Amino acid sequence: MLKFPGKRPTNLGVQGGKLASCPSSPNCVSSQASDNHAIAPLRFSGDAQAALRKLKTVVEAMPRTRIIDSKPDYLYAEFSTALMGFVDDVEFYCDGTAIQVRSASRLGYSDLGVNRKRVEVIREAFDRA
To answer: How far apart are CA 36 and CA 73, in angstroms?
Structure first.
């Protein structure tokens, strides 16, 4: 298997209640974007920290995933592709009313919708859990 992980971005994390903006390339989605990168946040009811713990369980169960950072209101994971080992950075931030999400490819320009599809798979599993 080939490996093309790229370098971990230095702009990740929460700054002023926001995840990093998406670049101009189409290989990123964010619930805090208002352009073609926009995707809905994950919704929950009840305790915010319990919701993020549930989300962490969902993410950990996904293949080729590694949790990099986990805090009571923030989760950061790396997802690797099976064939080429490309890495996508996926962040979740619980703002108290919803879980904001950002998923971005480290390398390349287009991801053929992989980041958007991944977030929707996570959303479905989160809603079922």
So the answer is: 26
